Amino acid sequence: MAGCLLASGCGIARYPVLPAWSANEESALTCDQLAQEREAAQATQRRIAEIAARGDGGERPQLYSTARPDADRAVQARLAAVEAALQVKRCAA
Fold first, then answer.
1. Does some domain include residue 58?
2. Bigger pLDDT: 1 or 52?
3. DSSP character string of the chain
4. With the CA atoms of 27, 28, 32 and 35 taken in that order, what torsion angle do they form, in degrees rounded to the nearest 10?
5. How far apart are CA 27 and CA 31, in angstroms?
6. C-beta separation of 11 from 69 below 8 A
7. Cβ neighbours, 10 Å, residue 49
8. Between 20 and 3, residue with greater pLDDT
9. How far is the C-alpha of 54 from the C-alpha of 7, rounded, in Å?
10. Residue 93 maps to a domain
């Protein structure tokens, strides 16, 4: 049983949490890269919603009551940072 827990998590879903960017990372991205980051963040947002929607019929996310708000905040922060960077760089929408 311990091997199952260590090796695979035994089917426990985990919410993806996007790390915060440093100012250097954000300023180094091109308009195309920022657009890709926006798409990736939106995909992460959809993944979070999919995990949450599983409910009792599927896997329950680890630390269900606390992990989702953290994941939601992280993806919202990433989307806000991307949008701000797109405006600063005057990238086309």
1. yes
2. 52
3. -HHHHHHHGGG-B----PPPPPHHHHHH--HHHHHHHHHHHHHHHHHHHHHHHTGGGSPPBTTHHHHHHHHHHHHHHHHHHHHHHHHHTT---
4. -50
5. 10
6. no
7. 11
8. 20
9. 23
10. no
Structural domain span for residue 60: 2-88
| AA identity, residue 24 | N
What's the number of domains the chain is made of? Answer: 1
What was the pLDDT predicted at 54? 75
**26, 81 Cβ separation under 8 angstroms:** yes
- For residue 52, what are the contacts with CB-CB under 8 A and spacing of at least 6? 61, 68
Which residues, including other chains, have CB under 8 Å from residue 80's CB and lie 6 or more apart? none
Residue % of the chain over a pLDDT of 70: 72
Beta-carbon contacts of 78 under 8 Å, excluding residues fewer than 6 positions away, are 18, 20, 21, 37, 41, 44
